[in-house]
Structure formats: structure tokens, C-alpha cells
Amino acid sequence: MSVLRLIPSVVLIGFSAYAYDFRLEVGGNYEYLSPNATYGSWKSGFIRLYHRPVQGFTYFLEGGVFSRKHEGDAALGVLGAYKDWSPWLYTYTSFSTGSNSTYLPKYRLDHEFNFKIGEKRNIIPSIGFTYIKYYDVHKAYITYPGISYYGEGFVITYKHFMNRSDPGSVNSSSDLVSIGIGQEGKSWTYLDISYGKQAYLVTYLANPQEVRQKALYISLSHRHWIKKDLGLFGGLSYFKLKEGYEKYGFQTGIFKDF
After folding, report:
1. CA pair distance 152, 13, nearest whole angstrom
2. Any idea what the CATH number is for the domain that residue 112 is in?
3. Global confidence as pTM
4. Is residue 113 in a domain?
């Protein structure tokens, strides 16, 4: 019932150490679903602006538009921020709200604590919380502990998501493994793998029934600088929902630092 949209921490860490105070990103997505006659294809586009007004604090604004063949068009707005509180703690917070639709949240709140430990402060245990309210009766409460390790030219992240969907107090869980290789100012390549279950209560039936489906998500993305302040990004993704559908995704975009 809910899908976590995660912004890699490397975006914050690399951008915060960079010489520019703004980053503008514009991108689009195309997703082909199978069986296509049943689900059609999904298209979306977004624009995102990062701003670092002072060292140790970065906020971003994002606007997105969506088009789904059988579910209509919708729009999403996001306001988020990263904040360094001390040499050993930074946080990520975001608030999202979507237009009235069957697939976007009425509102969503994300908050994550990240603790920097180790001699080089490059080991990052974290704990995050998400609350999602949909336009129907459904709500989702998500807790996710995790840990990241930043090495020389690579980053590895693991997170475990524990989801409760209401009504019905239906519990499920999933796991995310992310591996990134690269260097800020040159290129970053990420492989993300998420697996687990999504579960919720179907409430429009005369006798509400619990739905519990296994899901697998694989994404390969790349960000490449063509100038010191300009670059391109893109990626391929695959999603399989057991007894549901398969989805093949493609993303492309451009970013500019200034």
C-alpha cells in the first residue's frame, strides 16, 4: 500500500561539501507495466531545488506530475531538509502532499536520525519514521532502522522497514540493500535491491479482506558530471508484485549546480 521514496544520503554529504549553494534537478520517468492491457503505462516528471543557506543545513523543494492510464493524472509537492546538529548527528525531514488520487498520499511525513560514528565518522547507524495518510481510509506507519558505511569511493546501506497499515493493523516488512560507487564531482552509480511484502486491508468489499503480496524491486542508476557544475542522471528499474504485475522503468534527467 505504501512505497518508500528514499533520497540517498550521498546527495547531502557530497553536495554539502561542494562549492555551490544551489542544485537544480529536472527529470522524467516512464514505466511499462505488464499485463499492459490491465495496468497501462505510467509517466511522471519532477523538478527539485536544493539550497544550502548556511553550512550544515540544506533544504529542498520538489514538484512532481504523474499520469497513469487507468488511474488519472495527479501532482505531488515535497518540502524537505537535512540538518547537521553536531559532529555525530544529522537529520532528514520531509513533508509531502499529493492531489486527490488513488495512488498519492493526502499527506506524508518522513523523519530520520543519522548518527556518525567511528574514527572517520563514516559509519552511519540510523532510525527513521514515516506516516502516510491516503485519500481513502488507509494509513501507514513505518519504522526503519538502518546502517550505512562510507568508504573511499563507495557507500553501502542496509535498511529494514516495518510497516503497519490501518484499518486492520496489518503488519508487513521489507529490506533494502544499496551499493554506490563513485566520487562527487565525477560520477556515482547505485544498485538498489528491495524485497519483502506489502500488505493492507481491502475495505471496499462487503467483507474486508487482507491482501499480502511479495514484492521485489531492483534499480540501477547513474549520475555523471559533464562539467564541474553540470551533469546528467538516469536509471533502469524492475519491480515485480507477486500475483499482481511486473513494471519496467526508465528515468533520465539533468542537474545544474550554481
Report:
1. 14
2. 2.40.160.40
3. 0.90
4. yes
